[in-house]
Amino acid sequence: MSAPPPFRHAALGEAKLAALILLLAPLGWLVADIVLERLGANPVETVLHRTGDWALRILLLTLAVTPLRRATGWQWPLRFRRMLGLVSFAYALLHALTWLVLDRGLIWKEVVGDVLERPYVTLGFGAFALLLPLALTSTRGMMRRLGRHWQRLHRAIYVAAALAVLHYAWLAKVERPEPIVYGVILLALLLARLPLRWRTTPVGA
User: Fold this and answer.
1) Is 56:182 a contact under the CB 8 Å cutoff?
2) Which of 46, 62, 181, 199 is most buried by its number of CB atoms within 10 A?
3) Once rounded to an integer, what is the mean pLDDT over residues 52-68?
4) Is the Cβ–Cβ distance between 6 and 75 less than 8 Å?
5) How many CB atoms lie within 10 A of CB 33?
């Protein structure tokens, strides 16, 4: 499959803007539902689920960039990877803040108790804790400062994604297919990256 021509600077900016609008559309829909009071009997739970769902979906989309590049030879998807990762983290941050502020009311004793005693909360907290330093070091300046350590640090995204899938699966009802679907997608994306570790020359994540 031949690669498409590279984006010109203006076209790339327009493409990134369009992609950002699409990525934030679920958030806009959620805000509209909040304003119009269409969140159902348990609005906090609805906000938790929807922000968490989109955080995981976009995280998996972020992990799909490198396999897509390898399968097609296209380089332009790499231009969108940082934005995908940051938007995924933004949804994860909203998810965490909703739980922390609206669900637990900033009662730290309950927060700590949940993290230590509820496995699904422990998994979700672990995933967020791993994503936080990745978001903070996503700039080009941090890439230069950390050097080769930057790539090692950002491999934590695989562990974060696995913890996020387990977090979702623990919460979901048994009859729901989504946890299996997300798990299969994550496994396929990880297996698609294995050949990168067998090469003798360094390859970007």
Assistant:
1) yes
2) 62
3) 95
4) yes
5) 16
